[in-house]
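Re: the pair you flagged

First of the two:
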Amino acid sequence: MIKNTFNNLKPDKKKMILEKSIQVLCNTSATSIKVSDIINATGISRGSFYQYFDTPVDIFLAIIEELQTENIEIMKQIIKEEKGDFFSTFKRMFEFQYVNLLKKENEHIMLMLKKSNELIIKNQIFKVNDTYCSKKFMHKFDLEKLNINTYFEFNKLYILVTDIMGHNILNGIMQNLTLEKALEDYLIQLDFIKYGVIKREENHEEKSFKQ
């Protein structure tokens, strides 16, 4: 568990701990990292470590949480620019996250994700904030363009699309795919959701979103 004492640290110290820990996680997976690895890299004491975290894996979760927080702010901006179009927003979010990971300054993050890929998939780590985010963003999307009627349905759609996005980003990183190839694979899967795979009658009853 990530403790409040860590979240309440001064931004500079928190940033230092995360950045130094990322460097450690480039060489060892989150499941293999030891407390001694973290304290040697960051200079914090063993006592301080346990004031901030329960286990070494928590430092990895803290890094992922920080990345997700940054993505939330970017997504707000993209939704606005795309005028609430759900699928256009997720296409651009994929492009942003993938390109961002390929940047030279983020190579340590990419190496870290590669090292801990198995843990990410097994524990569905990128899903931690999905329900929170779906509530936060629901009313920013143009819901009349979606064939959904309730928040429950929207939440399921949001989680499904973000899950596919996370899977394709990780898969692209592991296979060293270009943005174009990774995006192509992602859009094929998005189109299955967007258009469906079962032929339907042309005339179908119009539905409107219900709160």
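Second of the two:
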Amino acid sequence: MRVVDKGLTLDMINDLYISHARCKCQLADFEIKSETKWGLGWSWTFGCKRCNFISKPYKLYHEVPSEHCGRKAAEMNLGIQTGLYQTPLGNDQARLILACTGIPPPARGITSRHKMGQGASQVIGVACEDETDQHNVMSYHMVIKLCWVGAWLRGEGYDVSCRNGHVGCTANKNPAEPLSERETGYKIGENLAKHDLLVKYVTTDGDATSCAGLETALQNTLSPL
């Protein structure tokens, strides 16, 4: 099974018959000559079994407008990424669900949730309770590598470094240090432990290490029950 846009599919069918009408062949008998997968989206090229007609490739997904060169992103690929951010599901679970419905799952790179890495400059981890309909925020921890004061001082020729290497430094992590989900989870656990809150169950994506960090913080901070 393929996920295709209904409107673009109808436009494709109309264009196919109009293009084929220019041939001497009187009765079209189309078949898919090739298909190209782009995440969840598909592009099809058709041919006629009765003549040498070959169509142009038809993209059956909407693209996201972009001023950059190269291949444009498909709206549905960005949509599944956005959906994953709002759920505890990980990439592998999402791909498994699609495969079970008969839809060829996208490659792992298409469903990437952009895990923490050297390229990020700010990260926030949030812990919400799931016992009420309000889903109140119980704790959070923010990691910031940015410091506009330090950047301005260095631009003026001062030899200063962040983090906290000068007055007014806003960074709480060295720009050269990698970001860590486990460390973020640990800080959240410390904040919860300060209020004598014991967390028994944590829901997160399957490949995250923040849960292990939170568990370690609670074990190290709270007295054994």
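The longest strand covers residues 30-38.

-B.
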